[in-house]
Amino acid sequence: MIVPHQPPTDADKHEHYMQLALEQARRAEAAGDVPVGAVIERGGQLVAAAHNQREQLGDPTAHAEMIAITQAAEAVGNWRLSGCVLYVTLEPCPMCAGAILQARLPRVVYGADDPKAGAVASLYRLLADPRLNHQTEVAAGLLADECGGLLRAFFAEQRRRGKK
Questions:
Q1: Rounded distance, CA 93 to CA 90, Å?
Q2: What letter would DSSP give residue 93?
Q3: Is 65 assigned a catalytic role?
Q4: C-alpha to C-alpha distance for 2 and 120, rounded to whole angstroms
Q5: Which of 40, 61, 62, 94 satisfies CB 3.0 to 4.6 Å to 72 for a cystine?
């Protein structure tokens, strides 16, 4: 799924890709799922774009990051995603952090912290654990207010409707 597009300048590259991840998060929300989106970029090319699909697929592993990693591996023709950057609107959970390490993703950029399930900085620091055979560089907090606001609004609406 390599999508050609005009690559942004270095100055706004990260914000550009996080905006694409936010578009994916809005797709998840429109489908009734937790609004988390992820995109993967490699060499200025968008190689994956995904959003949470747990409700749609009835699959607890259908997190945005997991789907994006699968798409990217197919697009680049290798499970090792060297040279790729994952942009995700919410700090990855333990499952997704494990997949990031297994895919050998060298860098992750995320928006909002996840104090209840975050495995990058909030609860655990899996991507930087020196006991593992691979570590991933992390940049946190990009467009955090927008990413977090989308999630807060979604969960406020769920509570208003009496859903858990």
A1: 9
A2: -
A3: yes
A4: 27
A5: 40
Residue 30: Cβ-neighbour burial (10 angstroms; 0-12, 13-18, 19+): exposed
Q: Is 87 exposed, middle or buried (0-12, 13-18, 19+ CB in 10 A)?
A: buried
Burial label, 69 (beta-carbon count in 10 A; 0-12, 13-18, 19+): buried
Scored b (16 or more CB within 10 A) or e, 107-128 reads bbbbbbbbeeebbbbebeebbe
Give tens-digit pLDDT for 12-66. 899 999 999 999 999 999 999 999 999 999 999 999 999 999 999 999 999 999 9
pLDDT tens per residue, range 83-105: 999 999 999 999 999 999 999 99
Stated as kind and residue range, the H or E segment containing 143 is none
Report residue 15 as tokens: 């914000």
